[in-house]
Specification:
By secondary structure, the protein is of the alpha/beta class. It contains 18 helices and 15 strands. It has helices spanning 17-22, 25-29, 45-52, 63-72, 95-104, 121-137, 150-155, 166-175, 192-197, 199-214, 219-226, 258-261, 263-284, 300-308, 321-335, 356-365, 404-414, 431-442, and strands at 4-10, 33-38, 55-58, 81-84, 89-90, 109-117, 147-149, 181-190, 240-246, 289-294, 312-315, 344-347, 371-375, 381-386, 419-421.
């Protein structure tokens, strides 16, 4: 049986991504694998993708590099055909059958016709011209959902790691092996770039960029002309990550949510949040990841993690949260006494919006500051990172109150430590938080911020 993997590169798609991914549910039920590759989003993109895709991974920003990473991902599933789908494009409901039929009939690659999601008559003409040009030239654009046999994709070397025109470049190399299958059922792509910049201005810009590309203008110059944000430099920072995790025990996990969703559902939420936070830390690829387990490492959930995940587990001990945070900090920095100290990030598992990009930003902040914080909207913090041990930062803090962040600032000021605060996130602790989270995952409008009693 021929298998199909959809690779979707995303960056800053936010809650809008939910509807696009939910539209793929029917294909997933028929065995299609959906792999989302994030280029470093700091909004809700990561959280939404984790809920609706088979796999979510991080790759260097740029559609070419992101799609190559998704194509190469080892997932345990076989993959005969790759389909590359932009985050603002929707496939027809029987796209899998159409693609497989085209490949079985002998096509090594192909694309769909495209329709722009707008009633504007000029955009209807633009879609028609894109499809006509593609038929005449054998060149496809990324908006047309290019698909290709995996062995052929590997034979031509995949996408070039260039910031723009990676789709045109790949099409030109594939065309040397054969003409594309041009499937008439259209994909529907968002009109947002035409709406943002104006229809005629966008059309003229794309014509100019294609002409520049044809005459050999360097890819980065094309990207600059398009207004494409340059890829941030890769960080070589090595930082350890400590995850403070509770066992998903019904009646003891997410107790403030239990009256609304039930004790078993609250425990399942705790389990899912822990797995997602661990995945985030591993994808950030900053350094060693350690899981601090409460009440201890013997719970069946932690034992199962030990069997399938290569992550060190330690037992939280002591009194309040401050004691347990201090324990993680002291044990980490004690390891570095005989060697250069590695900075430490400490995170909980209550913030499903935390992404690898947030951890990478926090790690980079420790190049210039003693401490980095990601505040929580409830008055606490989602993450604290330290370049050096500051034991007093956890002293006499009124944990689980709106005073936590301010008291932490006071302790840092008293310790003469420099610190920086990144953009705030929100935890899922109270019923309004849970409602907002569910609305986010569904792609529905949610309150601007969760309310807390």
């Amino acid at each position: 049986m021929t298998s199909l993997r959809i690779v979707m590169p995303v960056l800053g798609e936010g809650a809008d991504l939910a509807a696009r991914l939910r539209a793929l549910d029917g294909l997933r039920e028929r065995g299609v694998e959906v792999v989302v590759v994030d280029g470093g989003s700091s909004d809700a993109t990561w959280a939404v993708a984790c809920r609706h895709a088979d796999r979510v991974m991080l790759a260097p920003r740029g559609r070419g590099s992101q799609m190559n990473a998704g194509a190469a991902a080892a997932t345990g599933r076989s993959c005969d055909i790759l389909l590359f789908l932009h985050g603002d494009t929707q496939l027809p409901c029987d796209a899998d059958r159409l693609v497989v039929a085209a490949v079985v009939a002998g096509a090594s690659w192909g694309r769909f016709d495209v329709r722009i999601d707008s009633p504007h008559p000029l955009l209807r003409l633009v879609g028609f011209m894109i499809n006509l040009r593609s038929r005449l030239t054998g060149i496809a654009t990324g908006d047309q959902a290019i698909f290709v046999r995996r062995d052929v994709f590997e034979k031509v070397g995949g996408f070039a790691d260039i910031p723009l025109m990676e789709d045109i470049d790949l099409s030109a190399r594939l065309r040397r092996l054969g003409r594309p299958a041009c499937l008439r059922p259209p994909v529907v792509t968002s009109a947002r770039r035409w709406d943002k910049h104006g229809v005629m201005r966008t059309v003229l810009l794309m014509w100019r960029l294609r002409a520049m590309y044809f005459f050999g203008t360097p890819p980065q110059a094309l990207a600059d002309a398009y207004g494409y944000a340059r890829r941030p430099p890769a960080s070589s920072v090595i930082v350890a990550v400590a995850i403070m995790a509770k066992a998903p025990i019904p009646g003891l996990a997410k107790t403030r949510l239990a009256p609304v969703i039930g004790v078993k559902a609250a425990a399942r939420a705790q389990r899912r949040f822990t797995l997602q936070t661990l995945h985030v830390a591993r994808q950030a690829a900053l350094g060693p990841v350690r899981l601090w387990c409460a009440p201890d490492t013997r719970h069946v959930f932690f034992r199962a993690l030990a069997r399938r995940a290569d992550v060190e587990q330690l037992t939280q001990s002591g009194g309040d949260l401050g004691d347990r945070l201090r324990q993680a900090m002291e044990q980490h920095f004690a390891r570095g006494v005989q060697s250069p100290r590695v900075p430490l990030l400490i995170v909980g598992t209550d913030c499903p919006l935390l992404s690898p990009c947030h951890l990478q930003q926090a790690a980079q902040a420790l190049d210039r500051h003693d401490v980095v914080l990601i505040p929580a909207l409830d008055g606490g913090y989602v993450l604290i990172g330290m370049r050096r041990p500051i034991p007093r930062v956890f002293d006499a803090v009124a944990w689980s109150t709106p005073q936590v962040l301010q008291q932490t600032r006071d302790r840092l000021r008293a310790a003469n430590a420099s610190w920086v605060e990144l953009d705030p996130l929100w935890d899922v602790d109270e019923p309004p938080d849970w409602q907002r989270y569910q609305q986010l995952l569904a792609g529905l409008d949610a309150p601007a911020s969760p309310e807390h009693p």
